[in-house]
Amino acid sequence: MAEEITYADFERVDIRVGTIIEASPFPEARKPAYKLVIDFGPEIGIKKSSAQITVHYTLESLIGRQVLGVVNFPPRQIGPVRSEVLTLGFEDENGAIVLTAVEQPVPNGRKMM
User: Fold this and answer.
1) Domain-embedded: residue 43
2) Is residue 65 part of a domain?
3) d(CA 109, CA 19)
4) What is the Cβ-side half-sphere exposure of residue 68, based on CA atoms within 13 angstroms?
5) Which of 7, 47, 82, 90 is most solvent-facing, going by the fewest CB within 10 Å?
């Protein structure tokens, strides 16, 4: 388990829901990955991300899927892609990533409470 943090520490991490509107191959990545374009609603806008999610997801299955992302990390250059959000997920028993998602649809941009 990680070190305990305060609720104020947790509040500093801005986790929002967004809808994947584009997904494409990312052949330049060191590990198999996709390039994602995610709509986080009018306040945050459209953001790019890369995600190592090729084991459980096809490009077609990602379009329209709502995901959670950390939107207040600084952008990170991953090869030729500037990743603007950290798309959240968990490792399965084999280390492949399973996306974190909401159970029911919610408006893009809503903050995790």
Assistant:
1) yes
2) yes
3) 9
4) 16
5) 7
Residue that is written with structure tokens 């388990």 in the block:
1
Neighbours of 14 (CB within 10 A): 14
CB 17 within 8 A of CB 108: yes
How many domains, in total, are found in the chain?
1
- Give 61-70 pLDDT, tens digit per residue: 999 999 999 9
Assign residue 45 a region (left: φ > 0; alpha: ψ between -120 and 50; beta: otherwise).
left
Residue 87: give the domain boundaries. 15-106
Which residues on neighbouring strands pair with residue 77, listed in sequence order?
Answer: 82
Residue 50 CA to residue 81 CA, distance in Å, equals 8
DSSP element (H, E) containing 8: helix 7-11
Contacts of 55 (CB under 8 A, 6+ apart): 32, 94, 96, 97
> pLDDT value at position 113?
87
The CATH number covering residue 77 comes to 2.40.50.140
The predicted model scores a pTM of 0.94
Q: With contact defined as beta carbons under 8 Å apart, do 20 and 64 qualify?
A: yes
